[in-house]
Amino acid sequence: MRIHNVFTVRAAILILRKTGSLRYSMVKALNLSEAARIALLQEMMRDAKRNERGGLLTCLVAVVVSVAGFSTRSLAGNSINLGVVGLVIAAVGFAVYLYYARLYSRLVGQLAKIAFKSAVPCPQCGKALPEGEFGFCPFCGSSLKSEGGLQQEFLDKNTPPLS
Prior knowledge:
Elements: H1 2-19, H2 22-29, H3 34-71, H4 79-115, H5 147-158
Helix pairs in contact: 1-2, 3-4
């Protein structure tokens, strides 16, 4: 079992060198079940969104510091330095924001790929159907519900609830 773990870690490091992101590559490197992969992607999406907001907040605060530094130029001799430092911090905050926004969009794409996988083919055209409840095939338009299913759906919509 230890050899398998060492191999997994080495595979993750190899993917890290190719992609540049360890947590992003761990989804591909580890042999996880679909539910575990979805949970990991959702956790990574929360982290990316949190860091994206932090980068944007840092950028906004740094812009305020920069404006305060440049606007008090006549009052204090070091205010130009404060303005420049504010600009540098704003640039770093914006770079962090852009990095995590891009990572978040990649993770959303991965989650969408997992969500739209389906092993159920259309009985008419044979193409794999996306997950969800459809009354028809999105590719060929053929009905996916049996006659009994249509009657049950009609009864569900038109029957008053029991109270």
